[in-house]
Write a structure and sequence with these properties.
The chain is built from three helices and eleven strands, in the order H-E-E-E-E-E-H-E-H-E-E-E-E-E. The N and C termini lie far apart (42 Å). By secondary structure, the chain is α+β, with helices and mostly antiparallel strands.
Amino acid sequence: MAAKSISRIFVVCLLANLCSVIAGNKSGFRNVPASSEKCPHLWTQHEDNCYMMYVIPATREIARLECEETQGALLVNILTPSEREFVLDYWDQISPFTEVIWLGLKKDSENTDDFFWDYGIELDFTDWINDEPDDNELEDCVVLVKDLGWKVHHCHNTEYPFICIKSRV
């Protein structure tokens, strides 16, 4: 009988090392998050951001909408060399055979020579492949080519996997 009144603690480890603790006692169960500073389920944390990769290819517009409307996030931005290294490592863990992903970087619609992140921040850090960005007026979007860098690409009719980014909860 004494065993029934003893609280039990179960650790449930979910995907991507995301763990939560479920504490049980005679009054029932309640969820106790491992930390309130962590990312949502299925997201991976790096510094102050959370990342989630979609391996099923989509057009850039569909990828952007999926990040923004479904996840409350943005297409991935890479603002520092350390963030670039994290994105490449994370990408390689999730989908090692994928060679290209969409970035949240695009030519300014008013000035086709300047690139901005989808939320309007100018570029401080860049990682262009040699001879990029090129002068092709039909190419407005940017992709990240694994192990090479950023490349200007046309926005329509091409599907690539993508990564969403949002601030930690």
